[in-house]
Amino acid sequence: MRPVRALGAALIAGVLTLAAGCGSGDEKPAAAGGAVTVQAANGAVTIPAVPKRIVSLSPTHTETLFAIGAGPQVVAVDEYSNHPANAPKTKLSGFKPNAEAIIAHKPDLVVLSDDMDGIVKALEKVKVPVLLEPSAAKLDDAYDEIMDLGTATGRADQAKKLTDDMRAKIQQTVAASSKGKGLTYYHELDDQLHTVTSKTFIGQVYGMFGLENIADKAEKAAGGYPQLSREYLVRSDPALIFLGDTKCCGQNASTVGKRPGWQDLTAVRKNGVVELDDDIASRWGPRLPDFVKAIGDAVRKAPAAQ
Question: What is the model's pTM?
Fold first, then answer.
């Protein structure tokens, strides 16, 4: 989904699934006052001028907009956009979007990660530019979406700096955590034992450390987000347990240790239960290096796999 910059023209490079293409050196960026066209999941989206009234219906994209310096251009964000604290949070919903409520903010750009209830077409009908940037399937998708938002908002240089910094921090963390190979882990999405497999974006992040996901061989693992049975998890005995439900479900090392049969798990006995920030662990934006660092720290502290 890498963008193509243009002045008064709709230029398209690549498709969503390939996340490819780039602009030529003589094209003018949005900051120069011209139109830009970004290849998003909803096609080639032309933004006629640098947007001054952006509405974000995605917590991840809200974080990105502020991280690249486009915060002053944002007039409203959805109810779950809780970072940064000064984001103009409203009752707008990304799960049940209301076109009239969004339009009431007079947006010149709407950014979202899900096309719920046909909201993209509803906004396009009234000539509001919409960027549909879905959940990242791999790291390159996350970087490309940041670049898309940078180009769309006249902040391409800041977006490039952000992605370069993210790459450098992630590479540094992974390089410093080399003993993950052979260690098993379990990533908890909620206290009903829903988890992720290695095929998901989250699973791929763990895979950078060589960690082995116990969910990969679980029943219904093909969907990427299986629900494990207590018996399966206890039998798998992961060396590390990462809790992505500390906020939503109040889980921590103490509550996990009190679950029936969990007191003898390797992760519980050897202090391998890692309490994550739900938001950081579930978003693919600027704070991704923080998630990677939490994994790296746990890998370094864990006993080497036998």
Answer: 0.87
